[in-house]
Amino acid sequence: MQFTSEQHLGSGVLEREFTLGEIPGTLWTPESAAPAPLILLGHPGGLHRMYPRLAARARQSAAEGFAAATIELPGSGDRPRSAAAEQARADLRRALEAGEPVDDEIVDRLVLPLVEKAVPEWQTTLDALLSLPEIGGPVGYSGGVMAIGIRLAVVEPRISAAVLFAGSFVPRAMFEEARQVTIPLHVLLQWDDEGNDRQQALDLFDAFGSKEKTLHANLGGHTGVPQFAGDAAAQFFTRHLS
Amino acid sequence: MQFTSEQHLGSGVLEREFTLGEIPGTLWTPESAAPAPLILLGHPGGLHRMYPRLAARARQSAAEGFAAATIELPGSGDRPRSAAAEQARADLRRALEAGEPVDDEIVDRLVLPLVEKAVPEWQTTLDALLSLPEIGGPVGYSGGVMAIGIRLAVVEPRISAAVLFAGSFVPRAMFEEARQVTIPLHVLLQWDDEGNDRQQALDLFDAFGSKEKTLHANLGGHTGVPQFAGDAAAQFFTRHLS
Questions:
Q1: B176-194 burial, b for 16+ CB within 10 Å, e for fewer?
Q2: For this protein, what is any one GO molecular function term (chains A, B) (predicted)?
Q3: Which of B188, B227, B228 to mutate to test the interface with A (most CBs of A within 10 A)?
Q4: Is the pLDDT of residue A55 over 80?
Q5: What is the ipTM score, two decimals?
Q6: Domain with B196 in it: what CATH number?
Q7: Which domain range does residue A32 map to?
Q8: Residue A42 domain flag
Q9: Number of domains, chain A
Q10: pLDDT digit string (tens) for B14-26?
Q11: pLDDT tens for residues A173-203?
């Protein structure tokens, strides 16, 4: 893990960009508390585009005493593109623009290979982050690309709680996998998110095997998660990671 | 409003039983803060049976600086029974015990007259409570018999926010009424509550006309609302009534 930049954001938060092999990422640490529990910030890809929202989430996490980290997804941002993923993304966009239902087959082509590539990268990143003296356990996963969060929750025992954002397509094959999730879950659903299949999100919530699972549904569209809902997610991590 | 008993619960909470005409009820006030905002505690009827849970909710409200009050429902507890309501209740119980779907007609017979009788009683109680020097505005409604909460939210402008517990049958005719609700809503749904129609609860949440509405779904059965979900509901009132 090579740190390539370092910036004090104020309010006692240190922001460092890093690369880990070919994976670029960002780490935010509270300068006061060490070692800090860690929250992995999931997102749909495109670190630069997502930066304002990620940094806001990281600042809130730091204020609660948590470190936060994110990495660029394979095939997104400045990382090499995959022709197959680009094709699947174009097919998805075409279906959405035409107002057609999205074929399961498109979702499978887009999301399954992404999960296969991204999850081991998150795990490698986790190895590196947990070797830093300023990071301790436990670890939470927070955010989008729900399918990545599900797979991580199943295969990565170092993740002990997750906030999942129900705003992305999940391959049908992964519903069975959702039953194997047993860590405490806090699921955010934007009720009137037009790009999201609400019924699928509810079915998925139902499928999760966790004994503690909470669904918070709110108005406000895909990017309009209310401040109080962000606060509630932060409280969930405080309950489970502190 | 006649106070018939008075008890200091400790932690600075005063509990007083009252009667208002033929309506018995209980008022909890924080001894520190006056005048306090008020939360009306809804419940399915049977004040004595419900007392432990109501008192726990009232203590939590008092700790946040809120007064809380509840009244016995018409036809419940020690109040005179209605033959028609008893018949409807028996028909409902029979359908549930037989594992049959509950006829809309039974729900209408049970709930619509209850709403017609209970809502004016709540309003009369509100008149009396708001005339006490220790009670100020604003006012919230919290709890069950969702249909009563819906009607109150529509007809009673002094109620400015509501926590609704999705654990009771709501007449189909009231779904249209739900669209007229515009106050901030916080809806609690026990996801695996066998006595509750989950899809109906989701449809009802969808129908509410409020710009701010939040659904919190949790595991734990009808009476198993987790402590953190109660805390979140308390925070909702702190946001809207303080």
A1: ebbeebebbbbbbbbbebe
A2: hydrolase activity
A3: B228
A4: yes
A5: 0.87
A6: 3.40.50.1820
A7: 2-79+113-241
A8: yes
A9: 1
A10: 999 999 999 999 9
A11: 999 999 999 999 999 999 998 778 899 999 9
